[in-house]
């Protein structure tokens, strides 16, 4: 009986040590990704976004692009353009010929912005190394992220990282309701020549649009 207990304790200890080492390896890789992202003056990304829910028979694909510099960004997605100039967000909806202007507190942890999407994993998750895949000659290391709060509607997130470039390749999010969303980076460009007005909303470009100021 004592020998069996010892064996169980030893197996538990070995598995705990393995998990701890795995966690450190995952954390080190995430730190490298964060450092790489912060080293760039600007980032331009083209991406594909897929939403699937077999139970609800939902299968949607969309493409988009985003240009980021610091906390400023221009996001084009699903026919809508969002510009954040560092103080206000301008949401431009051509279908409605409307521009919504609102203030965003970038320090608010609940404020979702494109720049935060590249470093969201730094808090609020437990993480472990997952599988490695070869995608068109690129070695993609996946890290599994599990939210630490029960209120989060996401069951888990798989973050795919290009081992060579330390860039995020894709993000696969599984919800507790069975919905799976996948964001895949098709193009990741850095330090691009940007215009001085890249993140400036120019009202004269939208003369017939209704300007809806929320603040």
Describe the structure.
The chain is 19% helix and 46% strand. With 215 residues, it is of the alpha+beta class. A 12-stranded mixed beta sheet has the order 7-8-9-10-11-1-2-3-4-5-6-12, covered by helices on one side. It is globular. Residues 1-21 form the signal peptide.
Helix vs. strand class: alpha+beta
Biggest sheet layout: 12 strands, mixed
Q: Considering DSSP H and I runs of 4 or more, what fraction of the residues is helical? A: 10-25%
List SSEs in N-to-C order.
HEEEEEEHEEEEEE
Report the C-alpha radius of gyration, rounded.
Answer: 21 Å
Measured by DSSP, the beta-strand proportion falls in over 45%
Overall pLDDT level: 84
Q: Distance N terminus to C terminus?
A: 70 Å
**What is the global morphology?**
globular
Count of helix runs: 2
- DSSP summary, beta strand count: 12
Give me the side-by-side strand order of the main sheet.
7-8-9-10-11-1-2-3-4-5-6-12
Spans of at least 5 consecutive residues whose pLDDT stays below 50 are none
Give the SSE layout.
Layout: H1 2-38, E1 43-53, E2 58-69, E3 72-77, E4 80-84, E5 88-93, E6 98-103, H2 114-117, E7 125-135, E8 138-147, E9 154-162, E10 168-175, E11 180-190, E12 210-213
Parallel strand pairs: 6-12
Antiparallel strand pairs: 1-2, 1-11, 2-3, 3-4, 4-5, 5-6, 7-8, 8-9, 9-10, 10-11
């Amino acid at each position: 009986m004592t020998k069996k207990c010892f064996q169980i304790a030893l197996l538990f200890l070995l598995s705990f040590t393995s998990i701890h080492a795995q966690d450190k390896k995952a954390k080190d890789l995430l730190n490298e990704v964060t450092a790489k992202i912060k080293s760039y003056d600007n980032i331009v990304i083209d991406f594909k976004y897929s939403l699937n829910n077999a139970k609800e028979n939902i299968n949607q694909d969309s493409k988009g692009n985003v240009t980021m510099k610091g906390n400023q960004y221009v996001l084009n997605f699903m026919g809508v353009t969002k510009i954040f100039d560092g103080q206000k967000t301008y949401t431009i909806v051509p279908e409605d010929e409307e521009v919504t202007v609102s203030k965003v507190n970038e320090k608010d942890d609940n404020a979702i912005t494109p720049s935060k999407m590249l470093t969201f994993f730094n808090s609020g998750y437990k993480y472990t190394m997952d599988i490695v895949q070869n995608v068109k000659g690129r070695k993609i290391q996946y890290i599994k992220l599990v939210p630490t709060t029960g209120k989060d509607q996401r069951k888990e997130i798989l973050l795919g990282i290009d081992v060579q470039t330390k860039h995020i390749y894709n993000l696969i999010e599984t919800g507790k309701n069975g919905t799976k969303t996948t964001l895949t980076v098709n193009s990741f460009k850095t330090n691009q020549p940007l215009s001085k007005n890249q993140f400036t909303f120019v009202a004269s470009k939208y003369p017939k649009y209704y300007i809806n100021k929320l603040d």
